[in-house]
Amino acid sequence: MKPNAIDRALYEDVKWSLISRGWDDMNDYASAKTDVVSAIKARARAAQF
Q1: How far is residue 3 CA from its own chain's centroid?
Q2: pTM of the prediction?
Q3: What pLDDT score does 21 carry?
Q4: CA distance to 8, 28, 30, 46, per residue, from 25 (Å)
Q5: More confident residue, 49 or 47
Q6: Which residues have a Cβ under 8 Å from the Cβ of 37 and sit 6 or more positions away?
Q7: Which has the closest alpha carbon to 7: 29, 31, 38, 32?
Q8: Distance between CA atoms of residues 32 and 15, nearest Å
Q9: Rounded to the nearest 10 degrees, how much is the dihedral formed by the CA atoms of 15, 18, 19, 22?
Q10: What tens digit of pLDDT does each residue of 2-45 get?
Q11: In whole angstroms, how large is the CA radius of gyration of the chain?
């Protein structure tokens, strides 16, 4: 994620938004990040080809 400032900022925004919710279970917090992480990984893979 280092080379892509846009995705890095997106991930940071999502993390701060999610962590501010005060999760009872950190696994739920981690699961809530899945969509954004998957999208970032997909863009990174596509950029390699």
Answers
A1: 15
A2: 0.79
A3: 92
A4: 25, 6, 9, 33
A5: 47
A6: 11
A7: 38
A8: 9
A9: -170
A10: 678 999 999 999 999 999 998 999 999 999 999 999 999 999 99
A11: 12
